[in-house]
């Protein structure tokens, strides 16, 4: 498989890993959009949000759980943070392995910017 994130999971490509368990891996984004910008991914390859199956719901919920815990650990949970998942090209997805962006450490505006 030629998936960038699968290669990171398999340690074929280095990453600055900040969290790992049996289902989830989290690492610092190489092009951060905030003081903290972590990508949280399932270890199981799922290309897009449209491809999630009912049997994978617990894993998807775990991504949210890990994001909230990382925000608490890094000290910005109470101030607030942004969690984003993009889907397909028009939604801004560039790596076709679902991933959650956890961004914090600064005030965000709406619309995103």
From TrEMBL:
Motif residue range(s): Histidine triad motif: 97-101
SUPFAM superfamilies assigned: HIT-like (SSF54197)
Span of domain HIT: 4-113
Molecular function (Gene Ontology), one example: catalytic activity
Top-rank taxon, per record: Bacteria
Active site location: 99
The protein's name: Histidine triad nucleotide-binding protein
Species of provenance: Cobetia crustatorum
